[in-house]
């Protein structure tokens, strides 16, 4: 099922059966896991920063945490390495190799460790001559690198787009790596940054991107701040006509990592990220320190009812319906005619404000035409119960916070 959001006034949604993302059997729902970049970046000095440097020890510890602290059980399955894992040179056969001091066991051994715990291992490379941090890129070696990843037991590739040369090389590289991964015969989820880089030079053909990639970044890197979060949310809404149509089982827009559990977001802003990433059917890749995370952020990230909205099998990306008096109303059609609805208060002065939500503001195709059952999931769970077709609620929403509801 593919849905196209088409007019703001009518709030109309056109849903058509049919094609979706890359047909490799993977990412039928948005991928969930952990990715090192936002929190750990390119720290390579293990002498000075032993617990925060990019090393096999960091990933082994995160793997242990993912299993022992309920993350895997909650659905977070992909443990992903980002940039700065590589040695500065390829080996004598041109094969990639991990930095020998920080990954003394090599990637294959790390993959075995991760797999033994029921997790999957993701890795990072770049379509160009060098990665964004300057390590050897894949240009000229797509087939060899895809085979190396398959030999090591890699389950996901994040493929960055720095140092690509020309637009033709960039686009061709993304296509070739997709084909090369497929030819290895191993299930390797393919996470692209193609549109983020190509957008600067051309109009994106999302139908094509979705044919080659399981997920794709559209905008700049997320940071641990409310400013950054707002930028990603606004950018997504401004392009939703294109983005919503492109998403579906097998291929997802990636607004970048969840930064919940770090330093920069207030509680209400953490709620906003979790609610909106679920509404947007975004990959849920956390970047935080699972060895040290506060219980409230952990409970938010592991909330099964919120995750169910993100992972809903219909696979439709939600969209912004309305922007009025510094409120934003978003909705996401769910399987069986249900709906997820969120209201964000974007007025950053004063206290909580009331938003009047009525049935008439929501998707007209909503199945509960006679009786709707309403449950508030965030910021706290509350069952409003059954309503007739003309329900009307006054939702209290904190500044920079979000109320997330489910309508069944
Ligand atoms: C780019 C990507 C980031 C991260 C860094 C690593 O900026 O967009 O997500 O992978 O490179 O260098």
Task: Describe the structure concisely for a colleague.
With 408 residues, the chain is of the alpha/beta class. It is built from 13 helices and 18 strands.
Please explain how this structure is put together.
The chain is α/β, with parallel strands linked by helices. It folds into two domains: about 20-310, Alpha-Beta Barrel (TIM Barrel); about 320-405, Immunoglobulin-like, CATH 2.60.40.1180. Helices cover about 30% and strands about 25% of the residues. It has 13 helices and 18 strands. The chain has helices at about 35-40, 55-70, 70-75, 105-115, 140-150, 165-185, 195-200, 205-210, 225-240, 240-245, 265-280, 295-300, 305-310; strands spanning about 1-5, 10-15, 30-35, 80, 120-125, 155-160, 190, 215, 250-255, 285, 320-325, 325-335, 340-345, 355-360, 370-380, 380-390, 390-395, 400-405. The protein has an eight-stranded parallel sheet with strand order 9-8-7-6-5-4-3-10. A six-stranded antiparallel sheet has the order 11-12-13-18-15-16, with helices on one face. The chain is globular, with a radius of gyration of 21 Å. Bound molecules: alpha-D-galactopyranose. Alpha-D-galactopyranose binds near residues 83 and 131.
């Amino acid at each position: 099922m593919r849905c196209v959001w088409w007019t703001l006034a009518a709030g109309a949604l056109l849903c058509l059966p049919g094609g979706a993302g890359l047909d490799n059997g993977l990412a039928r729902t948005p991928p969930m896991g952990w990715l090192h970049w936002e929190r750990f970046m390119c720290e390579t000095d293990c002498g000075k920063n032993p617990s925060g440097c990019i090393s096999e020890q960091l990933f082994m510890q995160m793997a242990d945490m993912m299993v022992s602290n309920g993350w895997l059980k909650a659905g977070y399955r992909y443990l992903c390495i980002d940039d700065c894992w590589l040695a500065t040179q390829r080996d004598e056969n041109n094969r990639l190799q991990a930095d020998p001091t920080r990954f003394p066991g090599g990637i294959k051994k790390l993959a075995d460790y991760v797999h033994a715990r029921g997790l999957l291992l993701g890795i990072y490379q770049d379509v160009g001559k060098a990665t964004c941090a300057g390590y050897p890129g894949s240009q000229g070696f797509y087939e060899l690198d895809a085979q190396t990843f398959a030999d090591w037991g890699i389950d996901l590739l994040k493929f960055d787009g720095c140092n690509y040369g020309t637009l033709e090389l960039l686009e061709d590289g993304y296509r070739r790596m997709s084909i090369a991964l497929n030819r290895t015969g191993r299930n390797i989820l393919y996470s692209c940054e193609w549109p983020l880089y190509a957008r600067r030079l051309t109009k994106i053909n999302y139908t094509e991107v979705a044919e080659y990639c399981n997920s794709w970044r559209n905008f700049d890197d997320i940071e641990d701040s409310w400013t950054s979060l707002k930028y990603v949310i606004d950018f997504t809404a401004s392009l939703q006509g294109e983005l919503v149509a492109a998403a579906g089982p097998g291929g997802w827009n990636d607004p970048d990592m969840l930064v919940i559990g770090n330093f920069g977001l207030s509680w209400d802003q953490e709620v906003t990220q979790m609610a909106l990433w679920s509404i947007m059917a975004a990959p849920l890749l956390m970047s935080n320190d699972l060895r040290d995370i506060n219980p409230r952020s952990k409970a938010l990230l592991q909330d099964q009812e919120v995750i169910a909205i993100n992972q809903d099998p219909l696979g439709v990306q939600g969209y912004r319906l309305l922007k009025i008096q510094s409120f934003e109303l978003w909705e996401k059609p769910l399987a069986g005619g249900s709906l997820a609805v969120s209201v964000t208060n974007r007025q950053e002065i004063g206290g909580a404000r009331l938003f009047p939500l009525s049935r008439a503001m929501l998707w007209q195709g909503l199945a509960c035409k006679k009786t709707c059952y309403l449950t508030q999931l965030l910021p706290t769970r509350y069952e409003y119960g059954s309503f007739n077709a003309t329900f009307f609620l006054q939702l209290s929403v904190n500044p920079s916070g979000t109320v997330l509801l489910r309508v069944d």
